[in-house]
Structure to design on (410 residues):
């Protein structure tokens, strides 16, 4: 019975957060297919561990953010990508060139950052989280968040400027 | 200046994933996946990467114990006498090929446990890269045209497996001798002739001891896939299909 409750609960989390987490994972990892895998694995792990995994979780969104960011990084490591940031070119080749090009431009800029910097930047400027919240979600010191941002932003500024 | 840049960055990030939403139905997901497969098929090497993308939350849940509705020891011994065991020293390959019709992916020499992928309508829709053994690539060779709406799992075990017991949604159980997983037959279709997936699969050694048991959960409606005819390869009268792996 407990397992059924957990499944129902996780199913609800999936419905509420899957799309958002998928986009987060794409921005942090850069690869839509890998992002889908990462998010799927997070939910699958939740399902496997069941209700106890959610005990004491006050903010499921924060919990899931952290799990997805970690899963993206872990998947990349397992694949021996060593932080290599691949940008698959998928999608129609006609009619959407501009949108695809614009999307690639941003992903290419993010590719210039390391995993932590990408995660911090995405959580700050895509998820619109505060620096203390990011520190809490990623379980890193606030100073690390600040330094990651201060190093990442000039890189992004240069890359996005060059690409325009 | 900073504010301008940060505002633009917010906009850029949102724009980068704008419209990227998971397909609303499993059929959409499969169609999208197939479309990507077809586009990539002609690009050759990227096919496996595409196939590894899981759109559906799916879980193979390993459980520690389970009742044994059948005499597993006898069945396992029977299987051991009648068919080769699955052994852990089978070959390793890497990469995979997809020629637009048939996809062949590699069998990794994982020592960590069964490798399972879920397929619907012959299209890989998700899998479990459990135990850190792989990046989630499905481990099967199959003909995309020959598998109608079914869930397929492939298994790879670290130790010799004498029998696999499937627990079906109907409450029944089915025993599978792993001949299909012997060196020349490595891909295996789990499911009954109507394309119904088992709820769980237990793996036994030749002493009848449970090596591991997996429960399958698909958090999506696969019933929208009406099983067509029985798969065109292998036996159609039972619940397993042997797919030669050349």
């Amino acid at each position: 019975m407990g397992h059924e409750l957990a499944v129902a609960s996780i199913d609800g989390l999936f419905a509420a957060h899957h799309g958002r987490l998928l986009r987060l994972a794409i921005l942090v990892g850069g690869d839509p297919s890998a992002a889908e895998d990462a998010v799927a694995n997070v939910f699958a792990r939740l399902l496997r561990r069941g209700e106890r995994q959610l005990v004491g979780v006050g903010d499921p969104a924060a919990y899931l953010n952290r799990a997805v960011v970690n899963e993206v990084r872990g998947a990349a490591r397992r694949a021996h990508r060593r932080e290599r940031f691949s940008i698959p070119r998928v999608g129609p080749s006609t009619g959407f060139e501009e949108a695809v090009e614009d999307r690639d431009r941003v992903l290419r800029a993010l590719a210039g950052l390391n995993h932590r910097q990408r995660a911090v930047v995405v959580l700050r400027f895509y998820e619109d989280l505060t620096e203390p919240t990011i520190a809490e979600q990623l379980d890193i010191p606030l100073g690390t968040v600040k330094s990651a941002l201060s190093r990442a932003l000039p890189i992004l500024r240069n890359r996005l400027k060059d690409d325009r | 200046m900073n504010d301008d840049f940060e505002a633009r960055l917010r906009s850029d990030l949102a724009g980068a994933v704008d419209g990227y939403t998971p397909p609303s139905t499993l059929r959409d997901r499969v169609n999208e996946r197939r479309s990507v497969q077809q586009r990539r098929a002609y690009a050759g090497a990227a096919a496996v990467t595409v196939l590894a993308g899981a759109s559906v939350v799916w879980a193979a849940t390993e459980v520690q114990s389970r009742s044994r509705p059948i005499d597993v020891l006898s069945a396992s011994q029977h299987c051991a006498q009648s068919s080769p065991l699955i052994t852990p020293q089978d070959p390793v390959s890497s990469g995979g090929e997809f020629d637009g019709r048939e996809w062949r992916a590699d069998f990794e020499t994982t020592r960590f446990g069964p490798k399972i992928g879920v397929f619907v309508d012959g299209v890989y829709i998700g899998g479990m890269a459990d135990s850190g053994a792989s990046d989630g690539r499905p481990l099967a060779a199959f003909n995309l045209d020959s598998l109608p709406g079914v869930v397929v799992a492939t298994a790879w075990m670290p130790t010799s497996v004498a029998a696999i017991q499937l627990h079906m949604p109907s409450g029944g159980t089915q025993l599978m001798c792993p001949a299909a997983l012997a060196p020349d037959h490595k891909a295996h279709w789990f499911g009954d002739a109507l394309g119904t997936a088992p709820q769980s699969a237990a793996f036994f050694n030749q002493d009848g001891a449970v090596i591991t048991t997996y429960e399958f959960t698909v958090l999506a409606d696969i019933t929208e896939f009406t099983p067509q005819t029985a798969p065109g390869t292998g036996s159609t009268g039972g619940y397993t299909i042997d797919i030669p792996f050349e």
Notes: The two ends of chain B are 63 Å apart (CA to CA). Residues 8 and 14 of chain B are 10 Å apart (CA to CA).
